[in-house]
Design brief:
141 residues; mainly alpha; single chain; 5 helices; 2 domains
Length: 141
């Protein structure tokens, strides 16, 4: 959703882009605002929504709970929790690559045997642009 807003140059997208380029985290309020807009759009179309990667913080979880209690009372919430060892997550993230084309942003995996591997080494299958690995911060000090 963040990439979509950035690509479409929405007000939310501009704020997200500014935060990212400034090396800051996107505020919980901004993320929740984006989620609220998306929920409204999807619910008007009666679609099922999967929130992948949200909420990430306790503040976001509280904001989501408040939204569901006040604005989206008829939404049925189902939670799925995956318990994955840290080593597996680190391996997957370290082999994740993304298309440099801001309008594409296709995601690939260079893990051996991955079904998301690019057909051509470090080149996007969709648009032919180069792939890159996002900057990461080390949690292991």
């Amino acid at each position: 959703m963040c990439r979509k807003h950035i690509a479409e140059q929405t007000q939310v997208g501009k704020a997200i882009d500014f935060a990212i380029k400034s090396g800051k985290l996107i505020s919980d309020e901004l993320v929740t605002s984006m989620i609220e807009q998306s929920l409204q759009e999807y619910l008007e179309k009666s679609l099922v929504i999967i929130l992948d990667g949200y909420p990430r913080t306790v503040a976001q979880a509280r904001q989501l709970a408040q939204l569901l209690e006040t604005k989206f009372k008829n939404v049925r919430l189902k939670l799925v929790r995956f318990n994955v060892p840290d080593e597996v997550l680190i391996e997957r993230l370290s082999e994740r690559y993304i298309c440099k084309n801001q309008n594409c942003q296709a995601v690939y995996s260079l893990l051996s045997g991955s079904q998301q591997a690019p057909k051509h080494d470090l080149t996007c299958d969709r648009c032919g642009q180069p792939l890159y690995r996002r900057k990461t911060i080390s949690l292991l000090r």
